[in-house]
Amino acid sequence: MGNFTKWLGAGLGFTLGGPIGAIIGFAVGSMLDGVGIKDFTSEQEDYKRATGRKERPKVKQTTAGDFEISLLILASIVIKADGKIDKTELDYVRLHFINLYGKQRANNAFKLFNGIIKKDVSTRQVCIQIREHMSHSSRLQLIHFLFGIAKADGNVTASEEDAIHKISGYLYINEADYNSIKAMFYNEVDSAYKILEISKDATDDEVKKAYRKMAKKYHPDRLQDVGDEHKKGAKEKFQSIQNAYESIKNERNMS
């Protein structure tokens, strides 16, 4: 129990409170009797004293742990959207966390996930808490990850897409950005154009301008506020932008 509470308590900021904190408390309570949010708060204070970290009054900073917990909770919403829990999707979540954090930290995260997925979650309340404390770039990365989960079994169902679209709206992701990320997971004729948020009748100059804009928007360096480990997940999204641009260049014989 000690290692688990230290992992969770030391890494969280804004997600220790509000509706997300309540979900965490429920998830842990379903695994460990007698353990609650107060245990994580205690571990967090011990961690701050040991590392010399001081928290500014009334400011809730976003941490790598906050991003991690947000992923788990939103992933549980998408996985349950079609009325069943698919093992392939669960395996995708586990593998993604191993790639991001290493096996030990990923195992801790998945223990928590197994508790979270048993809880009925208010999508709106969770997303409001996330968007109040997380940057736009980080919220875009969340949507990309959720599509990856939905596509893990080879097909994004209508209910899964509806769930991600609802989450996107609550996170204040506009339709152009949502459709851009969605197009990264569909092999359609005009996917490359959708990824760059332009139409097929765009001029070559407009294509180049769109690429520069999107490359800047999705550059992994924009995720520094939630830890270097999450840049790994951002690289796939950034590569999709580059691939879309190369596809259009080849189609048009652009220099």
From TrEMBL:
Mind telling me which InterPro entries this protein's record contains?
A: DjlA_DnaK_co-chaperone (IPR050817), DjlA_N (IPR007791), DnaJ_domain (IPR001623), J_dom_sf (IPR036869), TerB-like (IPR029024)
- SMART domains per record: DnaJ
One Pfam entry name: TerB
Q: Which SUPFAM superfamilies match?
A: Chaperone J-domain (SSF46565), TerB-like (SSF158682)
Q: Which PANTHER family match?
A: CO-CHAPERONE PROTEIN DJLA (PTHR24074)
Q: What is this protein called?
A: DnaJ-like protein
Keyword Transmembrane helix attributed:
yes
List the transmembrane segments: 7-32
UniProt keyword list: Membrane, Transmembrane, Transmembrane helix
Instruction: Kindly list the organism's lineage.
Output: Bacteria, Pseudomonadati, Bacteroidota, Flavobacteriia, Flavobacteriales
Q: What CDD domains is this protein classified in? A: DnaJ (cd06257), terB_like_DjlA (cd07316)
List residues of the J domain. 191-253
What PROSITE patterns does the record tag this protein with?
Answer: DNAJ_2 (PS50076)
The organism named in the record is Tenacibaculum jejuense
